[in-house]
Amino acid sequence: MEDERGLERNREAFQKHQLLPRYLVDVSVRDQSATVFGRTYASPFGISPTGGAGLYRRGGDLMLAEAAAEANIPFIMSGGSNASMEEAMRIAPHNTWFQLYAAKDRDLTDALIGRARDCGVGALVLTVDVPVSSKRERNWRNGFATVRNGTLLEALKLKPSILLEAMTHPGWVAEYVRHGGAPTLGNWAPHAGNGASKIDAIRLGRTQTPASAQTWRDLERYRRLFPRPLVVKGILHPADAIRAAEIGVDGIIVSNHGGRQLDQAPASLDALPAIKAAVGDKVTVMLDSGVRRGADILIALCLGAEFAFFGRPTLYGAVVGGTAGVKKAISIFREEIDLVMGQIGCPRLSEIGPDFLWRDDWSRNR
Question: Is 257 an active-site residue?
Answer without folding.
Answer: yes
